[in-house]
Amino acid sequence: QGVSGVIEVSFVVEKDGSLTDIAVKRDMKFGTGDAAINLLKKAKKWKPGVQNGLKVRVAYTLPIRLSAVSQ
After folding, report:
1. pTM over 0.90, yes/no
2. Contact assessment for residue 60 and residue 49, using Cβ atoms and an 8 Å cutoff
3. What sign for the dihedral angle of Cα 32, 61, 44, 12?
């Protein structure tokens, strides 16, 4: 059996595209929250928000759906 469900991770995309303040908002346990944090820490830079032509920080909450794969 695998792990199925949804976890939620929040973070801020900074003006330079880096991710900060990464936190798990909803976890399923089994190490899924830690795995999501590690994945986001290794991610390439994101595109920052733009408001009135200027780059701005943006807060996100990202739902991640996990589905068990039967073999």
Report:
1. no
2. no
3. negative
Tokens of 70: 């039967």
**Residue showing tokens 């995309």:** 13
Q: What is the pLDDT of residues 28-38, one digit of tens each?
A: 888 899 999 99
* Per-residue tokens: 14: 């900074």
Q: What is the 3-state secondary structure (H, E, C) of the chain?
A: CCCCEEEEEEEEECCCCCEEEEEEEECCCCCHHHHHHHHHHHCCCCCCEEECCEEECEEEEEEEEECCCCC
Domain ranges for the chain: 5-66
| Cα angle 9, 12, 15; round to 5 | 155
